[in-house]
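Protocol step 4 of 6: structure prediction from sequence.
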Amino acid sequence: MHAAEPIVRTPARGPHYGLVVLGLVVLVVFSALGLGRHGYTIVLPAMQEALHLTNTQTGALQSWNLVGYLSTVILAGFLASRHGPRLVITIALGITAAGMVVTGCAPSFGATCVGRFLAGAGGAGANVPAMGLVSAWFGPRRRGVAAGVAVAGSSLGLVVTGPLAPLILSRSAAGQGWRICWLVLAMLTLAVLVAAAIFLRNRPAEQGLQPIGQAGPDTPAGPAAAGSLAWGQVWRSRRLWHLAAIYFAFGFSYIIYSTFFVRHLTSGLGYTRAGAGALWFQVGVVSILSGFIWGSVSDHWGRRCALLWVFCLQGASFLLLGLSQQTAGLYASAILFAFTAWSVPALMAAVCGDLFGARLAPAALGLITIVFGVGQALGPYLAGRMADATQSFSAAFILAGTVALILGAGGSFILAGHGRRPA
């Protein structure tokens, strides 16, 4: 007797459960990255003042977060492929929340490094499997848009922390507001953990469904098509490591911009914390559309086309912030970044799904994200040292723009096999 296979059906009416999963993925990304990583940007000035940190140390704190991300990202992908994303995501969000609590309670720079490391480790464990769920629940013709919606969670983090952190800071005792900020972010993360544990599902078959926009079985176009769990065929793929190099460029360049944007405004351009927070909030609101826009472009004109345009626009954004001291240049930079902000992770998730299929997509995404993580870990540390040496973040932003254009846009231009609309 063979075990009964799940009956795959298409609901006659009502929303597809994949939309529920997508909404939860947005919230997971919101907690893992929007709060755990990008929340640091808005809390940073108050932390730096209270703990008497140098720019090198503030860069190192973000680098510790990204080292934590790097330490678990590949394991998270493989564990999600073997044991299912829901379990991995739930545990990882708990680690993320614990890291936020440690950060908020830390008495010194060294203890804060531990908190940032834990938040990064949990962030990887939640984010990579969550983005892998997109490939499981959406077919190739809807995958780019769905991944673009998923990464809006990072934007939601900016939207929430932009006004929330300055409000908490203004109403708290001197030197303590930044601690309360981290504890509040931890509570929000725990709320998302509970929702994910209850409502997430690993595959459409668990609900008797097909992925949205897919009529037949998942058929990856890449080298992993022949084996259900052919790990070696994933890491030996040349296209995978080409994607990893492009992803490195994004990690290195965008993290410099997003980490020190608010600090540059308050220390170099004369903005108040509230004013800088308001602009960061506006960037977050606009950036909600970034993944959707470029995911749609990739679904219609190819992943390579979308990646090329995104890196060109981001490179221009970073260079503008580094080269211009005028308000017009600052706002042009912010607009360009907002319209492209989180599109690259969405595009990478879609490409991994295209090449390796739903089952292996988390593993493939984990492999390229480890290289992405190296870029993220290096970026803030180098930028902080450059700022201490030059008393300005301008040179760091110019470096970020150069890397985005040469390695990011250049690597995307020669990317093979993704110039066409996905099948």
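Step 5 (inspection) to follow. Residues 27 and 192 are 6 Å apart (CA to CA).
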